[in-house]
Write a structure and sequence with these properties.
The complex is a heterodimer of chains A (243) and B (280).
Chain A lengths: L4 H10 L9 E4 L2 H12 L13 E3 L14 E4 L2 H10 L2 E5 L3 E3 L4 E2 L2 E3 L4 E4 L6 H7 L1 E6 L7 E2 L15 E7 L2 E4 L8 E5 L5 H6 L13 E2 L5 H11 L4 H5 L3
Parallel strand pairs in A: 1-4, 4-9, 5-10, 9-11, 13-14
Antiparallel strand pairs in A: 2-3, 5-6, 7-8, 11-12, 12-13
Helix pairs in contact in A: 1-2, 2-6
Chain B lengths: L6 H6 L6 E4 L9 H9 L5 E5 L3 H8 L3 E6 L11 H8 L4 E4 L2 H12 L4 E4 L7 H4 L4 E8 L5 E8 L3 E11 L5 E2 L8 H7 E11 L10 E3 L4 E6 L17 H12 L1 H11 L4 H9 L1
Parallel strand pairs in B: 1-2, 1-8, 2-3, 3-4, 8-10, 10-12
Antiparallel strand pairs in B: 5-7, 6-7, 8-9, 9-11
The chains are: A alpha/beta (243), B alpha/beta (280).
């Protein structure tokens, strides 16, 4: 079975939670949510995952499914979710409108503070997430608009201040904060992606590992089966990352 | 005891320059009937404190807002709230922007009559840069590392008034939620000098578990029965978000011509007329 790019992204996201044990896998974005649930259904069975709302589901749910009768193992309304952020048993994978060399992210606004050129969401939970929890990022479209020299507003804190910035998964590559002075480093390119394309679509110089840039692993046959038959039979992932 | 009021009476009790908290979260269980009444009233220069959704957007679109205090403003399925966005990009409103957990601590502090609550959150982020009034405090106790820690002192979010929508309420001002999340609605009520409830249905007595009785009457000044009063935001289990209408709102906000018609039909009308129009 040949995996699509979206499927490679899902397992690359899933790998972010590898080894985390009994923590909440908080995810935003299709491939990220599917990755958390796939990790739970395969190599990281102790993860806690949600229904996309305040319910902790007894089993990892298919995309869009409800927990249903007997399918709920816990309740995590927003107030308790925010408790959990400070408590720490949570690994979050967030999105970012901008991400810079130091791993600082912006989801707040672009441009002048008093009159932004583009008002985005606001900082949301990014300052707390990054300061208190292991944090990864899922960027569905790797571009110079996202990967900028310096973010306009630091929503998620950089690697120097963060609890633990783990990895950045994009539609092209997997990156981490292992570059000089904890800067963004290109770990692997997805199958079929040229290393040069990642550099071209990044607005700053990417560090690379001493041993060279790898190729992101392909999903296993079992992972593909779970993803295609159980978690996302409608192929929502392919809309987020078109082939 | 009878605290029944109309949405217009509630809006009429607010005055210019007040700090008004609004319950719900994003585009979920927002007291939209009360917000619409505020939009029709002459009140202005409000400071709006909210986990923001179309409540913030609509008030911005009608020129009611001087400052927004929020961690975000979003319509959930439409990520960026277009009216808030336009007001910010036109430089019309100020924005006090806190992390979601900092904002919760601000409400908790006000609810408990504390001047502030400490949190590590904010350090390393631009929340401290864009809110230069925020202060830090040195913990009097050593941290696990041994050294006392500097913490951000989140100031209490005192509210002159709070607006909250619940599934059921009684005439005394007790409020019950039946959905999956109480959001921070009880904290808004406790943080406010006066709280006004709207409800899907007024009842004489409550069914359901006691822990669903979220708001108690000692914190409530007025109650309005507003069936569909959270529209177009979600109000489970009474109703889901009206996604089609939300899209229509978002489109209207982005287009001055569409906006005139939208406003005439859905904003400058009383609540019964609004409810008739949206079901037509």
């Amino acid at each position: 079975m040949t995996a699509t790019r979206a499927e490679v992204c899902v397992t690359a996201c899933a790998d972010a939670w590898r080894g985390d044990g009994e923590v909440l896998a908080a995810a935003m974005g299709v491939c990220s949510v599917l990755g958390a649930r796939l990790a739970r259904l395969t190599f990281e069975p102790d993860l806690l995952t949600t229904d996309g709302g305040p319910l902790l589901s007894r089993e990892a749910l298919p995309w869009g499914a409800e927990a249903g009768p007997g399918g709920v193992e816990g309740w995590l309304p927003f107030r308790d979710h925010l408790w959990l952020v400070l408590h720490g048993r949570r690994h979050v994978m967030m999105g970012a409108s901008q991400l810079d060399r130091h791993g600082r992210s912006n989801i707040s606004a672009v441009g002048d503070r008093e009159q932004p050129r583009s008002q985005l969401l606001g900082v949301r939970g990014a300052p707390g997430n990054t300061l208190c929890n292991p944090t990864s990022y899922w960027i569905p479209k790797h571009s110079r608009r996202v990967f900028v020299e310096e973010v306009d507003m630091v929503s998620g804190v950089g690697a120097e201040d963060a609890y633990d910035l783990r990895r950045v998964v994009t539609d092209l590559a997997v990156l981490d904060l292992g570059g000089p002075d904890r800067t963004v480093r290109l770990l692997s390119v997805h199958p079929g992606v040229a290393e040069e394309e990642v550099h071209e679509r990044t607005g700053f110089d990417l560090a690379v590992p001493e041993g060279g840039v790898g190729v992101t692993r392909e999903p296993s046959a079992e992972e593909l089966r779970v993803l295609r038959e159980v978690l996302d039979p409608d192929g929502v992932r392919e809309k987020e990352v078109p082939a | 005891m009878n605290k029944l009021m109309t949405p217009d009476e509630i809006a009429g009790s607010l005055s210019d320059g007040m700090t008004v908290g609004i319950g719900g979260w994003g585009s979920r269980r927002k007291p939209m009937a009360l917000v619409r009444a505020v939009c029709r009233s002459p009140v202005r220069d409000l400071t709006v404190v909210s986990y923001g959704g179309p409540d913030v957007g609509l008030l911005c679109a009608l020129g009611k807002v001087r400052r927004v205090v929020a961690p975000f403003v979003t319509l959930d399925t439409v990520p960026l709230e277009p009216a808030f966005r336009a007001a910010r990009q036109n430089g019309e409103i100020a924005f006090t922007e806190y992390d979601e957990g900092m904002f919760l601590f601000g409400l908790l502090a006000a609810a408990h009559r504390l001047p502030f609550l400490p949190t590590p959150v904010g350090r390393g982020s631009d929340v401290l840069r864009v809110n230069p009034e925020l202060r830090t405090v040195r913990s009097p106790y050593p941290s696990p590392g041994g050294e006392p820690e500097d913490l951000v002192a989140v100031p209490a979010l005192h509210l002159d008034a709070a607006l909250v929508h619940v599934n059921r309420a009684d005439r005394r001002g007790n409020g019950q939620y039946l959905g999956p999340d109480p959001y921070m609605d009880d904290l808004f009520a406790k943080a406010a000098e006066r709280t006004y409830l709207s409800c899907e249905r007024l009842v004489d007595a409550f069914d359901g578990p006691p822990q669903s009785l979220l708001i108690n009457r000692a914190t409530v000044s007025g109650v309005a029965e507003t069936p569909g009063g959270a529209h177009f935001t979600s109000c489970e289990p009474d109703g889901p978000r009206d996604e089609a209408f939300q899209r229509r709102y978002a489109e209207a906000v982005r287009d001055p011509q569409l906006w005139e018609g939208f406003r005439a039909r859905f904003v400058d009308v009383d609540e019964p007329a609004y409810q008739r129009e949206v079901t037509r």
